[in-house]
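As the work plan foresaw, our protein records have gained a structure token line. A representative record is set out beneath this paragraph:
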Amino acid sequence: MNIWHVYCAIAWVLGWILLTRVPRLRPSAKAAPRDDRAITLVIPARNEARRLPHLLGDLAESRPIDARVIVVDDHSDDDTAEVARQFSFVEVLPAPDLEGDWIGKTWACHCGAEAAKPGVLVFLDADVRLRGNALDRA
């Protein structure tokens, strides 16, 4: 065993000792207070007609009742916009043609953010699934 192994072993032991000294946060007994800012959920979607109903179904059950949901249809070749319109709480925003150096998904996110009200802005991919109170926890 050479000196390098000894140094590594000492560093490893010291690392574990220091790790035990990191303060832990205690779980809160009550939920954090909600603020009164508007919540906007932006979903950029391109050819997501098959996946979008799952996410929107989850949102129908778990979204904050006053949350605004915007699906940005990013020039889809399928029925993405029509599927999104089947959910009464969804606003469908067609993405304009790309400007400048913008590229696909970031442009769709930007367009959705521009349409959002000031407040909390949440981006969700169309293939995401939400469980329980995921948005409240976030």
